[in-house]
């Protein structure tokens, strides 16, 4: 009987843990890829304790870039931004973890690298807003939409990382 309760308890724990997990879309833009910053950027998310669940390198079409940045279509820099995103390989990723959307944005830093704190990715590695090397979803809704735009469901890998018990306790 006690074994039965132990199993029920473990399943509940697992469920509670899974419910807290969220996913965000992170992309290294063509400038970050060309500058050889892939490993540096991945390493910051990895060392924090977030889990990589999807990754691929693609050259997005201009049309695709416009879909990705559709919220910004009224902005004066929209066309240049979409030209830039489609100008070379982009490393598209999905990262998973508790609070990964908000904390991912913290790791990335402010949109304008001049205003990003030292210690953030843009603060440490970029200088101007038009070449700020990385994209990260800005909220749960955009995260969901962006993951769906960039990845097919079967490209997302669900797995347990054995380090999780040391990261989450
Ligand atoms: P973030 O990428 O930090 O979420 P936004 O969604 O506001 O920022 O903008 C998307 C991208 O558009 C920025 O990462 C940057 O590459 C580009 N961008 C934003 N503002 C400007 C600007 N004033 N001039 C040129 N490019 C810009």
TrEMBL record:
Primary location: plastid
List of catalytic residues: 135 (pros-phosphohistidine intermediate)
A Gene Ontology term for the protein's cellular component: chloroplast thylakoid lumen
Keywords, sorted A to Z: ATP-binding, Kinase, Magnesium, Metal-binding, Nucleotide metabolism, Nucleotide-binding, Signal, Transferase
EC top class, as a word: transferase
InterPro entries linked: NDK-like_dom (IPR034907), NDK-like_dom_sf (IPR036850), Nucleoside_diP_kinase (IPR001564), Nucleoside_diP_kinase_AS (IPR023005)
SUPFAM superfamilies per UniProt: Nucleoside diphosphate kinase, NDK
Domain Nucleoside diphosphate kinase-like per the UniProt entry, residue ranges: 21-158
Record GO biological process: CTP biosynthetic process; GTP biosynthetic process; UTP biosynthetic process
Binding site for ATP: 29, 77, 105, 111, 122, 132
Quaternary structure note: Homohexamer.
Protein name, per record: Nucleoside diphosphate kinase
Origin species: Liquidambar formosana (Formosan gum)
């Amino acid at each position: 009987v006690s074994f039965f309760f132990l199993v029920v308890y473990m399943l509940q724990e697992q469920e509670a843990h899974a419910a807290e997990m969220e996913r965000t879309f992170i992309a290294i833009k063509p400038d970050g890829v060309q500058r050889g910053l892939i490993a540096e950027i991945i390493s910051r998310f990895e060392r924090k304790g977030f889990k990589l669940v999807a990754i691929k390198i693609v050259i997005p079409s201009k049309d695709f870039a416009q879909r990705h940045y559709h919220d910004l279509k009224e902005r004066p820099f929209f066309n240049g931004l979409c030209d830039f995103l489609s100008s070379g390989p982009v490393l598209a990723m999905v990262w998973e973890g508790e609070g990964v959307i908000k904390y991912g944005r913290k790791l990335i830093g402010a949109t304008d690298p001049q205003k990003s704190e030292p210690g953030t990715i843009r603060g440490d590695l970029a200088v101007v807003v038009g070449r700020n090397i990385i994209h990260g979803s800005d909220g749960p809704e955009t995260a969901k939409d962006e993951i769906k735009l960039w990845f097919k469901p079967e490209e997302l890998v669900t797995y347990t990382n054995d380090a999780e018990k040391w990261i989450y306790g």
